[in-house]
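ESCALATION

Customer reports they have been waiting on this structure for their group meeting. Please prioritize. Original submission:
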Amino acid sequence: MNPITVITGALAPLDRADVDTDQIIPKQFLKRIERTGFGEFLFYDWRGTDGFLLEEPAYIDAPILVAGRNFGCGSSREHAPWALEDFGYRAIIAPSFADIFRSNCTKVGILPVVLPEQDVQALIDAALANPGTTGTVDLERQVVVGPDGTEYGFDIDPSIKYRLVNGLDDVGITMSKVEDIDRYEADREREGPVTTTLG
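Update from on-call: job pushed to the front of the queue and completed.
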């Protein structure tokens, strides 16, 4: 997982509330066993429809998605953050997220940022008024810097911040403790054969 410190780039506006995981990545694309390759199916049912702007040149390579409240609601499928990450998003800014979706994002290297609704709307309006306009998400300082230089502070759990800044997923966290794990296992190693009775 790539570390996250400062993300700067175009803001992609998705001015919709209650975007659920089936809209993010429809169920017919969940047959893959790899974690990659989902990006091409992101928001599949909305692509090419009126008012869906994320495929326009000004937004196509944006690393920051700005969306409405309750983003990622619905089922707990981890494929949704996989698709967003595979498409190229590194941060998502919204007034609120579904809890499981938010947790799944942090495990694949996407930073979910919660800001008040009026601040999110200001960022969306700026991105719509000036396609390609840029912003910055600074995880170390815990601020979003809007296109006009306005800074919006955000909170994040310190343990999640540590994981993201250091690029540690669950396996990486476990491997950082490998010496302690080896010591624990060596201290409890039994001599002779180990048998298990299955009842």
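Sent to customer with the following note: The chain has a mean pLDDT of 92.
Escalation resolved.
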